[in-house]
């Protein structure tokens, strides 16, 4: 099943503003999700399209998704039960929500939502066990994480 995905919204300028740095410091987050759609995200989205069977009837979490391209692709091109597209930056999650809204008609029966999620907090480790599949691209944290 092929559905058209509308290009994700993202900032047109490849630069940061002072309020981005202020928000970054206030929430102890980085600003990489605000810069662009990274090539690794495009590769992950391509992989997910070509392995769509693995997502059938699954609950999927995308970590550190930036603008959410891979999560949107999973929601639109697979038969996943639910896709949660997350990022630790509240500004980025606003873009994710806009992208979900723009593409909602392409998701079929798949439930799709955005959420603020810091993967280096205890909440993340408790929560990840409720997902069947977790995807991420260019994912790095200074902490050692094991599941």
Automatic annotation (TrEMBL):
Keywords: Cytoplasm, Methyltransferase, Nucleus, Transferase. Its EC number is 2.1.1.60. Transmembrane segments: none annotated. InterPro entries: CaM-Lys-N-MeTrfase, Methyltransf_16, SAM-dependent_MTases_sf. GO terms for molecular function: calmodulin-lysine N-methyltransferase activity. The keyword Transferase applies. It is found in: Cytoplasm; Nucleus. It is an enzyme of class 2 (transferase). GO terms for cellular component: cytoplasm; nucleus. Pfam families: Methyltransf_16. GO terms for biological process: methylation. It comes from the Eukaryota. This is Calmodulin-lysine N-methyltransferase. It comes from Oryza meyeriana var. granulata.
């Amino acid at each position: 099943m092929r559905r058209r995905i509308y290009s994700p919204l993202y900032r047109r300028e490849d630069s940061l503003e002072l309020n981005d740095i202020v928000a970054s410091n206030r929430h102890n987050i980085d600003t990489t999700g605000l810069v662009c759609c990274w090539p690794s995200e495009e590769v992950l989205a391509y992989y997910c399209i070509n392995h769509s069977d693995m997502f059938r009837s699954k609950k999927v979490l995308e970590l550190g998704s930036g603008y959410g391209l891979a999560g949107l692709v999973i929601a639109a091109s697979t038969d996943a039960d639910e896709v949660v597209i997350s990022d630790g930056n509240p500004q980025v999650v606003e873009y994710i929500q806009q992208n979900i809204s723009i593409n909602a008609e392409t998701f079929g029966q798949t439930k799709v939502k955005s959420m603020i999620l810091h993967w280096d907090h205890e909440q993340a480790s408790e929560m990840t066990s409720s997902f069947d599949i977790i995807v991420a691209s260019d994912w790095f944290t200074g902490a050692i994480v094991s599941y």
